[in-house]
């Protein structure tokens, strides 16, 4: 199964402003806002294929329209964080040409969104068979996939409230005393890397009881580790922050760096004063938006602690920060929509859970 060219490119990206969240209580307006996206998609799909092209939308509600695409009401839903995680795993491994081989050759992914963070990687059949049960109503740890003629057991878990922006609120709630040790001076009187790290550890609930053999944080099973976790790709806010503070080239669609780089820059940033050092901050980190400067110590320390203490990555082992993956002659967005498209079109697709 190959990706089809669309004109001179391999994908089409379009967006509308404002987003769907601004249409709360106005479903018709929400539906109308999506119409330009449907028209854009319709303009690039050959007419002879329109009625055979599946349309899937990750939204809460949509007024049914006379779209020419192949349509099924069941394809309109709100995807859960765990689904987003395993769709991203499918997309990244497809683009890396890792599907169809042994699970040990696949890449693991960690996606840091605004509200949640997802980890997904392939594990052995034996590890999957021994996966612990999850509480009733929670997403299972294991998703079984059949892709390019190969069975995969994909561990995936989504941590709500621990995305890049949502975590800020959790960290501020975990502060020791009146001021947070994670806010730059000028907003706090006691910014300090080590103390900030302690507050983040508390927010992540690193000391939560682990009822299974191995846990990440907040008492969650970590999948057991293994070869599928040897090659990690981190996306979204990980890539944004790393590029904005010059851990990686901000023009590179992907680049490798060790998590320890976050610690090094955080140690410096946490000593800065948001007002007195404003010029220095602007020179060192011109890509960081002014609204995010007060959170610089917090964000850097959080991403380091999340990767190393939360997910258990080696601080000195390089991982890949990615926004786009080179696939043939193209650079394609490392994002979950491609994963769901691949699943939809894959023959003999099996989705079952332990």
UniProtKB/TrEMBL annotation:
<feature type="binding site">
    <location>
        <begin position="114"/>
        <end position="118"/>
    </location>
    <ligand>
        <name>ATP</name>
    </ligand>
</feature>
<dbReference type="Pfam" id="PF01150">
    <property type="entry name" value="GDA1_CD39"/>
</dbReference>
<keyword id="KW-0547">Nucleotide-binding</keyword>
<dbReference type="InterPro" id="IPR000407">
    <property type="entry name" value="GDA1_CD39_NTPase"/>
</dbReference>
<keyword id="KW-0378">Hydrolase</keyword>
<dbReference type="GO" id="GO:0016787">
    <property type="term" value="F:hydrolase activity"/>
</dbReference>
<protein>
    <recommendedName>
        <fullName>Apyrase</fullName>
    </recommendedName>
</protein>
<keyword id="KW-0067">ATP-binding</keyword>
<feature type="active site" description="Proton acceptor">
    <location>
        <position position="84"/>
    </location>
</feature>
<comment type="similarity">
    <text>Belongs to the GDA1/CD39 NTPase family.</text>
</comment>
């Amino acid at each position: 199964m190959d990706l089809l060219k669309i004109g001179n490119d391999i994908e089409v990206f379009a967006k509308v402003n404002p987003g769907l969240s601004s249409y709360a209580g106005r479903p018709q307006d929400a539906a109308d806002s999506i119409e330009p996206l449907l028209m854009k998609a319709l303009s690039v799909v050959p007419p002879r294929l329109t009625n055979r092209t599946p349309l899937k939308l990750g939204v809460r509600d949509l007024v049914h329209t006379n779209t020419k695409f192949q349509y099924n009401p069941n394809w309109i839903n709100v995807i859960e964080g765990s689904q987003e995680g395993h769709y991203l795993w499918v997309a990244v491994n497809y683009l890396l040409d890792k599907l169809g081989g042994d699970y040990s050759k696949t890449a693991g992914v960690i996606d840091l969104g605004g509200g949640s963070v997802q980890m997904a990687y392939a594990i052995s059949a034996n590890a999957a068979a021994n996966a612990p049960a999850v509480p009733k109503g929670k997403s299972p740890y294991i998703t079984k996939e059949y892709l390019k003629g190969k069975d995969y057991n994909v561990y995936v878990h989504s941590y709500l409230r621990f995305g890049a922006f949502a975590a800020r609120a959790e960290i501020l709630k975990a502060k020791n005393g009146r001021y947070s040790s994670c806010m730059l001076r000028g907003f706090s009187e006691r910014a300090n890397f080590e103390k900030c790290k302690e507050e983040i550890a508390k927010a992540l609930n690193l000391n939560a009881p682990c009822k299974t053999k191995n846990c990440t944080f907040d008492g969650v099973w970590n999948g057991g580790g293994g070869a599928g976790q040897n090659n990690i790709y981190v996306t979204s806010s990980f890539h944004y922050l790393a590029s904005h503070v010059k851990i990686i080239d901000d023009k590179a669609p992907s680049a490798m760096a060790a998590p320890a780089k976050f610690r090094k820059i955080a140690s410096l940033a946490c000593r800065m004063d948001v007002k007195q050092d404003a010029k220095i901050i602007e020179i060192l980190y011109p890509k960081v938006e002014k609204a995010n400067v007060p959170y610089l110590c917090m964000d850097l320390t959080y991403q380091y602690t999340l990767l190393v203490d939360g997910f258990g990555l080696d601080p000195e082992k390089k991982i890949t920060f990615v926004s786009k993956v080179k696939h043939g002659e193209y650079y394609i967005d490392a994002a979950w929509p491609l994963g769901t498209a691949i699943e939809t079109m894959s023959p003999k697709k099996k989705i079952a859970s332990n």
